[in-house]
Predict the structure of Glucose-1-phosphate adenylyltransferase.
Amino acid sequence: MAPSATLSGLITRQAMAFVLAGGRGSRLMELTDRRAKPAVFFGGKTRIIDFALSNALNSGIRRIGVATQYKAHSLIKHLQYGWAFFRPERNESFDILPASQRISEDNWYQGTADAVYQNIDIISSYAPKYIVILAGDHVYKQDYGVMLEEHCENGADVTVGCVEVPIGEASSFGVMHVDGQDRIVDFLEKPKNPPEIPGKPGFALASMGIYVFNTDFLFERLAEDANDPNSSHDFGHDIIPSLVKGGRAFAHPFHRSALRSGPESEPYWRDVGTLDAYFSANLDLTTVVPDLDLYDRDWPIWTYSEMTAPAKFVHDEAGRRGQAISSLVSGDCIVSGSQIKGSLLFTGVRVNSYCDIANAVIMPRVDIGRNSRLRNVIIDRGVQIPDGLVVGEDPAADAARFRRTDNGVCLITADMIARL
């Protein structure tokens, strides 16, 4: 049952969202060589982190902190440009919290729990009653107010957002068992052999990396954890398992608070942590009615939007017609005498004449030379594709030149092009 707007609003205004955005995301390979995973481009104009931040804002949470660490410049620049509209006179705040040895001159953030612990003084200055810990690297739309209200109703020590995932993917998550009242009775962080959901073979109940705590209670646990020499100072490995054993840990199924694209649609949540998953999630948006609705004005995905000219399609002659079919094309793109199918073009892409491009995720400021044929590709920001390049037709040649996945998706970066 959805919470009343009045009650949910009261709770969210007493909450602070703390986004963990320091991870590299190494399974995205060279795509995260120069940026953290939360800063990776997604959906034509947003970054991955914009989803967690937008969920917090749309839920009514007006105090947000973002912990950064790995190659954070791109992420910090995006946050400064796109999320600097919070106003302290309205009891709002937005803090970017790079790892800066604030507790010890020798330590960066040692784990997800330590990232919060090192910023206790900053969090305390805002005196939030509740803390919503969020992973900054998943794509989904969720009303955290529903989860916060359940947390209060259950008198929980911690409430963990959870989603059902195929058993083959579950080793990348914390996996839990719950009883009939959604109380967590067992929790395993990234198990090699994840247990299935009883009565639902082939699926595991996985943590979304979303945790709700009462602030005072969390600070006490973080202080205990910081003084434990055997701890890895991580929520999934240390904090949550200890509360499952000795506290009141409850699960919050994602479907209860998910924002759906339609009344019959399935709740949408994606861990876009591999090249194949990232590629598929982006191309899902090119379908007629995608499961992730980016056109919903009631729950927008906020981001930094450059001031750009409209997209342009030029030339209208046989063999040289600028057109895009079943594609998303952002501002400042020019498609000149080429055909685009089932693809996403981020801001400022140039596609020169006589190209044939299909199933492509093309990041900002890419320039594609004439007579190129590209299939099943992810092209990193700023890459200059040489005239006549062909990708997606010869698997052996693709694997020799680029990062090719088992599913045939090729990642193309500037360094790879320079080696040709």
